[in-house]
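Researcher: I'd like a candidate sequence for this fold, 292 residues long. If you have to choose between options at a position, lean toward the conservative one.
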């Protein structure tokens, strides 16, 4: 399927349903083993018990969710310890059917269609949430550049973070893997209403690190750097206290009842959507936002 002319099209569930009908697999921001050693080390060095319950948000057709469920250094084994979700019913159906045929991880996973802005989980019910590129897609209509974000984009980002913060257990962890650089992303994590301590790591991959990228002309030896944000609930991090935003963070039950049941998702690194914010095809959307 062709790359959309307007980055805002990545927010359309219809786009992803159509794409997943023909695309069998793609690994956003590298494969699981590119960042798994960092995740394992972080959890090992933590003084808290190994996670028993995990939510993978926006898995798409990646193998990350299944790999995580089978990783004994990350997840304590049990029945349906990992719930793998995406906004697209097409990819959820295809992936769950494939997992059933392959066996192996099926006893440790469940699959569900899920809106990351309105999570169907009780407060403090999950030990671990992992997303790779899902939060990034919320920024595809982010404004002229990362220094001048759209108010609607910030609203979506905080709707997601507030939901994650709500359902993570005390001392639980949100793991966010992203294109976004720390000096932009950590300001969001450190906003009022969130009590997590945020640590940042990074890793690099080459464009030829996956079969998909090789097939699409990658492999020129270029490197991509990605960032991992570990947000553990607990005492608030003091590092950016003077820069915290006001009026954002936790959402009321009234706000949650207004959540839409349809939503948007995923991206591909070779499409470098974050670097095209405010680029060709998005001016019309920006003008509409300014008028509104």
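Model: Candidate sequence:
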């Amino acid at each position: 399927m062709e790359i959309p002319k307007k980055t805002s099209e990545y927010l359309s569930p219809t786009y992803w349903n159509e794409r997943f009908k023909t695309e069998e697999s793609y690994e956003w921001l590298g494969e699981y083993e590119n960042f798994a050693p960092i995740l394992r080390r972080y959890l090992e060095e933590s003084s808290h018990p190994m996670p028993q319950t995990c939510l993978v948000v926006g898995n798409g057709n990646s193998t990350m969710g299944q790999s995580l469920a089978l990783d004994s250094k990350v997840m304590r084994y049990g029945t349906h310890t990992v719930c793998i979700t995406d906004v697209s019913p097409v990819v959820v159906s295809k992936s769950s059917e494939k997992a059933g045929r392959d066996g192996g991880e099926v006893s440790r996973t469940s699959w569900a269609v899920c809106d990351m802005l309105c999570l169907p989980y009780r407060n403090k019910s999950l030990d671990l949430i992992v997303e790779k590129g899902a939060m990034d897609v919320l920024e595809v209509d982010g404004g002229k550049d990362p220094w001048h974000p759209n108010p609607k984009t910030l609203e979506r980002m905080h709707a997601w973070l507030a939901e994650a913060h709500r359902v993570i257990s005390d001392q639980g962890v949100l793991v966010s893997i992203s294109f976004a650089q720390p000096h932009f992303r950590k300001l969001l994590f450190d906003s009022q209403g969130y009590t997590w301590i945020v640590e940042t790591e990074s890793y690099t991959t080459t464009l030829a690190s996956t079969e998909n990228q090789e097939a699409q002309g990658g492999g020129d030896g270029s490197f991509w750097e990605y960032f991992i944000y570990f947000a553990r609930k607990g005492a608030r991090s003091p590092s950016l206290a003077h820069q915290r935003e006001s009026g954002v963070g936790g959402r009321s039950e009234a706000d949650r009842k207004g959540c839409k049941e349809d939503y948007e998702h995923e991206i591909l690194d070779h499409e470098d959507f974050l670097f095209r914010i405010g680029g060709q095809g998005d001016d019309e959307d920006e003008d509409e936002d300014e008028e509104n």
